[in-house]
Amino acid sequence: MNVLQKTGAQIRKIRKFKGLSQEALAERADLHYVYIGGMERGERNITLLNLEKIARALEVELQELFRFNASDIEDEEITEAILATLECRSTEDKRRILQIINLIPQNATKKETD
């Protein structure tokens, strides 16, 4: 899956989570619904300006459009993605996230990697 397909899939996932149709997203972003469909299928090379419009229309930060499925990336990339995500979080958020991570049994993690 290339970056256009991954970005389009992420936008589709967020759009559906928010309960929006392609037409509703297109209207909010001041884009054509055919463009939204092509973008979600990875058929369009999306401009940065249009990505910004889509992020605003979805009411998410721009970087959320690039948070791809962890199964598509390797272990080292996962670690880098986690660290990059944490950089923009508050200290309180980081504490909460650490508490959540510590709730995951270590033997469950070992089974997944075996």
UniProtKB/TrEMBL annotation:
Keyword terms of this UniProt record: DNA-binding, Transcription, Transcription regulation
Biological source species: Paenibacillus ehimensis
Name the UniProt record assigns to this protein: Helix-turn-helix transcriptional regulator
Highest taxon above the source species: Bacteria
Record carries keyword DNA-binding: yes
Keyword Transcription regulation: yes
Xref: InterPro entries: Cro/C1-type_HTH (IPR001387), Lambda_DNA-bd_dom_sf (IPR010982), TransReg_Diox_bact_type (IPR050807)
Gene3D superfamilies: lambda repressor-like DNA-binding domains
Lineage, uppermost ranks: Bacteria, Bacillati, Bacillota, Bacilli, Bacillales
Domain HTH cro/C1-type: 11-65
PROSITE patterns, per the entry: HTH_CROC1 (PS50943)
